[in-house]
Amino acid sequence: MDQAVFLFDILLPALMQGLVITLQLIACSAPFGLALGIAVAVGRQYGHPAISWLCKTFVFLIKGTPLLLLLFILYFGLPSVGITLTAFAASVLGFILCNGAYNAEYVRGALISIKDGQMIAAQALGMTRWQAIRSVILPQALRRAIPGLSNEFIYLIKYSSLAYMITVIELSGAGKLVATKYFTYTESCAVVGIVYLVLVSITTVAVNLLESRVAVPGTTRAATAAQL
Amino acid sequence: MDVLPVLIEWLPYLLSGIASTLGLVLAALGLGVLLGLPMALGQVYGARPVRWAIGIYVWFFRGLPILVLLFLFWFGIFPAIGLGDLSAFVVGAVVLGLRGAAYQSQIFRGAIQSVGEGQMIAARSLGMSRSTAIRTVILPQAMRIALPGWSNEYPNILTDSAVCYAIGVVELLTITSRMVTQTHITMPIYLATAGIFIILNYGGLKLLHRLEAKIAIPGFGTGAM
Amino acid sequence: MNDNDIVLKVEDIHKSFGGVEVLRGVSFDVRRGETKVFIGPSGTGKSTLLRCINQLTIPDRGRVWLDGEEVTNSGARINYFRQKIGMVFQNFFLFDHLTALKNVELALLKVKGMGRAEAREKALTELRQVGMEEWADHYPAELSGGQAQRVSIARALAMDPDVILFDEPTSALDPELTREVLEVMKKLAREGMTMLVVTHEMGFACSVANEILFMENGVVAEQGSPDLLLNDPRFTRMKDFIGRIDSRMHD
After folding, report:
1. Which of A3, A127, B209, C204 sits at a 20 to 30 Å CA gap from B134?
2. B129–C54 CB contact, under 8 Å
């Protein structure tokens, strides 16, 4: 078959459809993953001992389990206890849990790095503990957590591909199907790879812009272990 | 539910799955050091084209999902270059290793760059060649600085190794799926496997931290002064 | 004294960094066993001058000879010359991953190719020389600044250098610790070691130096024995400089 015909009439349209699903997966997961991460970190750091323990255990369990196994549990496992999710919903739920657990670690690190004086000063002004956390501690901590949270967002883009393993035909799945049907593995996987590289690179640039945008003079950038 | 007898019946398979998973992880960590360390040296001390080429490599392997990398090499690149006979296990280990090298090289690079430049100056002032100074002064310090970050690659690689299921490597997750299919016991088996992964994960980390403590010296990282 | 006594010859050294001329033609000869002290305001190129001598900084112009052999433009042979020209740094630069003993041993093993036993013996001897033998098994992070600097002197001594360059060896130290390092340096001078010392310690300069070179704006402005520079009315610039330091200290 003509290479150009294959590329423009078969592969790219299929990948476009897959890309839309990938973007949907990310759009549905990222906000909740962020919210979960913040909630778990605050619960761990400032919550009642029981809540704190719960948050800690949640992170421990999720970080210890491969994401792919988590997806299997949510999609293939849950029906056996009477909960049936669509493949898309199971994927999104898995990504939220995973993304949330990792985000929580970055937010917690940032919370710890905020000096005690901030809390004391806020309470001296008559704020309650929760008011102080919400309006003094978190705004500072989240800025410091941005590099780490950005990393996790980029990981989310890449790991959204695992949804294919529970039958969601997203970007990599679409590529795989075309590859199998037309026996064009190298080409198809390569084009899929290029799309991911573009996605990830654009996100990296955007995230760096965001970081410099929200930087506050004098607040140091928290070091991240695995910068992309 | 009588899961325990099932688990015991399948124990030999489970153990072989665990062995295979750990094999993938060790191969990936080993390859990661073997390739990642020279890459880090190349990026710090190499000529511009060398640094450039390594930068592209790192960008490529860190920018692609592990699933896509596995598909690309298993179905595409390896067969295309006449290595289609390689077992799924070998391909999985190599891909995890190549990708691990990209990540680990950046850990080593950061560590090398964090060794003070005075160390090189002092070494050269004693008449050491550049390569002797790198080997005997810079690297021993950099490796100690890198170790905590490097240890944290272990859980990442362990959880990523499960994706090798996608190309048919008979590792722990694959064995688990077979068990589920054949026994029709789902949740308990999945959760048992999750438990095994969690034990491997934190057990391995504990071992690595013990190693860190063992080679710790005053002034470096986690070691007690 | 004749020319055979000259161990180090420095001729017309120039060096610029980013358009700023730090050294503008410095020349001098060093006789065996002599201690030369370089004094002057900071930023006048004293440290750069020392680094140009062992080629850690490559001068833009000028030449250096050690025992009649050219050090500048010597290619790979520079590693041989650097063994013969020891250096002690302001911030010690001890190898942080090695004990005091191993710090001294390392270059003996890797550069001189000595055997283990011999290197160990030699290293212990040098540590004893600077009064650090009991600290042989301690890591740099466990040493005070003065102790670390004494170890770094032992490290330089172990190579049996013809001359040692001291680049502000006490500037990073408290007065207390400064004294213990200066004592070691005085002892070395008495025992006939050839030394070039960049320092702000006037007391040391006056009691130990055979010659003081007062540097200003990248050149040697005044040169002579401590007695000459301090007491001869024809020399004023170093005295002015010392006066400025003293008045600042008494403010």
Report:
1. B209
2. no
